[in-house]
Amino acid sequence: MRRFGTEISFIIYDILWLGCRDLKGVHKSPEMLARYCDLLLKKTGRNYEDQELDELLNQAMIIFKFIEDKDVFQKYYSRMLANRLVGSMSASDDAESSMITKLKVACGYEYTTKLQRMYQDIGLSKDMNEDFKLWLGRQQIAEPMKVDFSIMVLSFGSWPFSQDSNDTFLLPQVLEPCVNIFTQYYQEMHTGRKLSWLYSKSKGEVLANCFGSKYTFVMSTYSIGLLTQYNVKDSYKLYELVEATQLREDVVTQIVQLFMKANILKSFDDEDKLSLQSEIYLFKGYKNKRYKVNLMQPLKTEVKLEDEKTQASVEDGRLMECQAAIVRIMKARKIMEHQNLLSEVIMQLNHRFKPTIQLIKKCIDILIEREYLGRREGEHNTYEYRT
Amino acid sequence: MAASGATNDEMMDIGGAELDNNKNEKMFTLKKWNAVAMWSWDVECDTCAICRVQVMDACLRCQGDGNRQAGGKQPECVVVWGECNHSFHHCCMSQWTQQNKRCPLCQKEWSIQRMGK
Ligand SMILES: [Zn+2]
Ligand SMILES: [Zn+2]
Ligand SMILES: [Zn+2]
């Protein structure tokens, strides 16, 4: 176990000291710690024994105690957990849930509510896939599914993903029956719900027959939409790929770059100098030692968007948590003087983040406007809880 | 849905090309698809007008209570739709109707059209 001792001291140094030094990046240390946890918990070539891993996570929890903005850590942690779960990239289920328990012990139940709900969704989805297969066996379906289909249904709000509403995409025809049949099943099982599909997170296995050997490529649904165009002809101008997939130009460019890096597609233009007129052709001489190749990679624009969303959700989260704390306190106390309420709120939230007076005042105003609180008649500085 | 926007002509094109290719094996064949989808309540406005919290989240009072159930799942904090098609947290609306039997948004008499499940 000794080698972890040295390892961890470097990490403490990196996370805390570098984190503090970056004056602009107030949020840096929690983010770095979350990334470190992600490295430990993600399936990689070298994974730890259960006991080693647990020891490393305990050490991460020591660093966690020093971190001030625990809510920022939570946002980054939840985003990385989400990607591990959706990508089936967790090294160990036990380690994942034991880490959630450690966080719960350190920060209380609410801190891990959404993490636990994410975990629940994965469990529910497993059961639902079984149930869906049984249901399917009982149906007469005109246009059956031609692929081996499985699904994860996540509850919106618990996951750090949002509907890609401004993303256009022409779903490959082979997938239409999957979407239609599953939607029909889901509508029969539930009332008042709607589904939106996260195509960039949905991955498929594509069998390639056009190279020297048979390969299986794992890729996102957008990539599937693009690569299967080459079933029709061997070469396209980039603008033709945009038309055929109906994806945004920058998305198509990034996917083409990904295939170019993997040596599956080629162009006479440089990878970073692609234009709408670039000719993108299939490289029939593709070779790989591995027969199963993972091409599932988040696009740069997606990562950037997720970063921005994480930042925004920290602000939103603080507003919500602060309001909930005020409601909780006032519900218990009924009547409270301004200064006392402030210090009580700060005390309750301190283990999560340091709320500014400005933030608390803003939340009090919101709650007064919504008639959860009122100012006491004659005593402007005293609040009453309204039911 | 994303699949819309395809004109009939485009669909025909792709279909035709597939037929030609079926003579020999296709170059790229999709074997397996692991889809990811998100569900949400099918509401016009995703915020509850009574507590101003997103309807996908527990209502403000349920959050304040810090419901201790596993995973924070609060089975009764679902969405309810009125005949007027406005929707709220069921918790918020039950409290509201104790004092006022009208929809807070349109003032029509409140009667439940359906409950989320
Ligand atoms: Zn509500
Ligand atoms: Zn509720
Ligand atoms: Zn109404």
TrEMBL record, chain A:
Listed SMART domains: CULLIN (SM00182), Cullin_Nedd8 (SM00884)
Domain named Cullin family profile: residues: 28-260
Family per record: Belongs to the cullin family.
Protein name, as recorded: Cullin family profile domain-containing protein
Originating species: Orchesella dallaii
UniProtKB/TrEMBL annotation, chain B:
Domain of life: Eukaryota
Principal location listed in the UniProt entry: cytoplasm
Keywords: Cytoplasm, Metal-binding, Nucleus, Ubl conjugation pathway, Zinc, Zinc-finger
Pathway(s) annotated for this protein in UniProt: Protein modification; protein ubiquitination
InterPro entries recorded: RING-box_E3_Ubiquitin_Ligase, Znf_RING, Znf_RING/FYVE/PHD, Znf_RING_H2
RING-type domain span: 48-107
The keyword ATP-binding appears for this protein: no
Any coiled-coil regions, as ranges: none
Keyword Cytoplasm assigned: yes
Record localization: Cytoplasm; Nucleus
Similarity comment: Belongs to the RING-box family.
Descriptive protein name: RING-type domain-containing protein
